[in-house]
Inverse folding.
């Protein structure tokens, strides 16, 4: 791109266009500031107003926040609602025929599901769950591919007050078993398999294996026949197909009204120990933030076609596929396949065909697609896009500007959304019609979110200093606990050294304008000769180099400096070897020195064809830390997308 360098070297502020702001829900900085002021003036009144605006209550709440048993906060506790009614039924009078879901399969076939059809499917499946003895409060594990039925299954649970726990389809049988047993689920909903990149992937076999290894709580397995032609085996539980389960069930199902604090779902996420944490989310408070952020941050309107590429197995697929967009009654795309099949233009082809207007994806996907060159997206008409979003990790400015220019045509704001499984919804993100954007920063906390950067005693750190990112007051969609482990919840998120603040586990800094820059996980901070460095900061510098596609940085113990930096780098084009590699190492060390300072210069740089990642695209730093020490990684590598890369990075090929 011609002007990339100049865009990166200029003062990098991108103001929202008048065209965007004029039609945006929050269209000016003044409007945004007024909301911030409202929340500061009357915190509970602010949230009560939003809870009434965005959620339809069966029994209105009279109490807003109950902090009598902090940090076990309750929101809207005497209110009652049903989440599926909020996502479906309340839209029916006005838009029964409107498309709720455009489902696109791996092979390109497309189905449109209207709000009325979604209602009928959810009601039938909810009745099927009841027929199998599932009741309010029972746990149901959903192990399905990224297809509309996953959303149907989630909403069917919500309709009858059952608590779902979605397990990402890429997880192994062992991981599935652990989650089933931790939740003591009575039922598993799965499929025979799914299609990814033209290949069949089987799922049901994993369920059989999990059950074989002992899941005493499971009575029933419901299996969707999705791909056909695979041997689906048999498990020890009672089994029926989705079609059998819904056969004869009526398309009406009386929703169970639940108290606002009733758990909507449990979703597992990795912590600092080996055992994943079952993050528990509420019904009422969760839905308030889910809907409100879809409105404010994604600016979703009735005429938008929205597409979030995340899998339902992750929090993004919960809040920004199933619950938030449907609560607002918009049309969205759900895509089963992969971005590079049948070719590298798949995403952009889909944007063109479905006239996607709001597109939300991860920086890792953006970088991978950027690596393939501008020619690919340039072949498509992307003029329907009006807003772009990112999530999951800091986006490096180079990828940001590429996304902005090549995908957004210099027309679409990019909302870089910071949040976590635990936070339930966006907490820090630019409200796109109101906030000036700076590539690499998630900008300002949303109104009502009291974020700060503090030291280990809870004192705010000065501008431009790194510290712990905390949220000083509760918010409606915060996690309620870790399933079965209140003590770990309290210890992890509300540690004794901080005065009642939620500890996010990320380090961050604030700049002169109050903008927040995420520096990385607290556990990924490297201390080189007493200087704290964010691994992500070094990575961002490396990927800013024109030859670098992706980089991961870890610390390696050093007897003089404490730690030194080891970088794993994927370059654009072929992996350099021999002299070319040596030259590239020198170039990159100089480059990082130039970008951040000599302290950030990697001691060692290794090149790979790619990096070890989980199937959700997260780089597995735990493995890289071992490799950096030339130790074969210990522990479970079953969630790796690409296990062969380990040998390469160990220098074995
Ligand atoms: C990181 C994903 C920088 C962060 C929704 C956080 C980000 C963790 C951003 C949560 C962002 C997420 N900029 N870092 N915009 N979004 N992160 O639970 O380290 O899978 O703590 O939730 O991802 O990951 P999780």
């Amino acid at each position: 791109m011609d002007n990339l360098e100049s865009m990166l070297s200029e003062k990098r502020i991108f103001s929202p266009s008048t065209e965007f702001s004029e039609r945006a829900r929050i269209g000016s900085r003044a409007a945004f500031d007024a909301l911030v002021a409202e929340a500061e003036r009357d915190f509970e009144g602010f949230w009560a107003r939003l809870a009434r605006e965005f959620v339809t209550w069966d029994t209105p709440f009279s109490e807003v926040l109950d902090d009598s048993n902090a940090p076990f906060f309750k929101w809207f506790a005497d209110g009652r609602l049903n989440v599926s009614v909020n996502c479906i039924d309340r839209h029916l009078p006005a838009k029964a025929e409107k498309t709720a879901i455009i489902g696109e399969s791996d092979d390109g076939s497309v189905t449109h599901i209207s709000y009325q059809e979604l209602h009928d499917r959810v009601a039938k499946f909810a009745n099927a769950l009841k027929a199998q003895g599932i009741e309010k409060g029972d746990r149901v594990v959903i192990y399905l591919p990224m297809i509309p039925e996953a959303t149907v299954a989630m909403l069917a649970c919500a309709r009858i007050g059952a608590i779902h726990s979605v397990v990402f389809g890429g997880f192994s049988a062992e991981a599935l078993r652990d989650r089933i047993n931790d939740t003591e689920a009575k039922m598993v909903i799965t499929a025979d398999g799914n299609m990814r990149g033209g290949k069949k992937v089987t799922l049901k076999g994993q369920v059989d294996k999990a059950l074989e290894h002992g899941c005493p709580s499971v009575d029933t397995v419901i299996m969707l026949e999705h791909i056909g032609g695979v041997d689906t085996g048999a498990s020890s539980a009672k089994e029926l197909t989705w079609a059998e389960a819904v056969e004869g069930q009526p398309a009406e199902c009386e929703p169970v009204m639940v108290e606002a604090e009733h758990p909507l779902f449990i979703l597992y996420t990795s912590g600092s120990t080996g055992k994943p944490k079952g993050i528990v989310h509420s019904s009422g408070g969760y839905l308030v933030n889910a809907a409100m952020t879809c409105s404010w941050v994604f600016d979703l309107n009735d005429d938008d076609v929205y597409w979030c590429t995340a899998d339902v197995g992750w929090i993004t697929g919960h809040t920004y596929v199933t619950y938030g967009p449907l609560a607002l009654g918009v049309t969205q795309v759900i895509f089963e396949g992969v971005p590079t099949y049948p070719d590298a233009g798949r995403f952009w082809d889909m944007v063109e065909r479905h006239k996607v207007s709001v597109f939300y994806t991860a920086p890792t996907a953006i970088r991978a697609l950027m690596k393939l060159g501008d020619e690919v997206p340039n072949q498509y008409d992307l003029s329907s896009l009006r807003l772009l979003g990112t999530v999951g990790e800091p986006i490096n400015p180079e990828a940001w500007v590429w996304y902005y220019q090549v995908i957004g045509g210099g027309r679409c704001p990019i909302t870089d959304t910071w949040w976590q499984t635990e936070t339930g919804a966006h907490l820090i993100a630019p409200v796109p019609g109101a906030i000036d954007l700076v590539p690499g920063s998630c900008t300002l906390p949303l109104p009502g979110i009291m974020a700060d950067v503090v030291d280990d005693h809870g004192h705010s750190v000065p501008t431009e200093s790194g510290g712990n990112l905390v949220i000083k007051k509760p918010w409606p969609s915060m996690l309620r606990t870790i399933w079965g482990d209140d003590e770990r919840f309290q210890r992890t998120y509300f540690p004794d050294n901080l005065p009642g603040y939620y500890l996010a586990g990320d380090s961050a800094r604030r700049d002169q304008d109050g903008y927040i820059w995420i520096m990385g996980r607290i556990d990924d901070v490297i201390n080189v000769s007493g200087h704290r460095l964010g691994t992500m900061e070094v990575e961002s510098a490396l990927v800013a180099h024109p030859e670098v596609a992706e980089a991961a940085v870890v610390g390696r113990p050093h007897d003089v400096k404490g730690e030194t930096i080891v970088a794993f780098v994927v370059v654009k084009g072929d992996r350099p070897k021999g002299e070319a590699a040596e030259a590239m190492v020198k170039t990159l060390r100089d480059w990082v020195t130039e970008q951040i300072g000599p302290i950030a210069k990697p001691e060692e740089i290794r090149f790979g064809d790619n990096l070890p990642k989980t199937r959700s695209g997260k780089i597995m730093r735990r493995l890289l830390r071992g490799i950096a020490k030339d130790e074969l990684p210990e522990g479970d590598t079953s969630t790796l997308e690409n296990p062969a890369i380990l040998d390469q990075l160990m220098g074995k090929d």
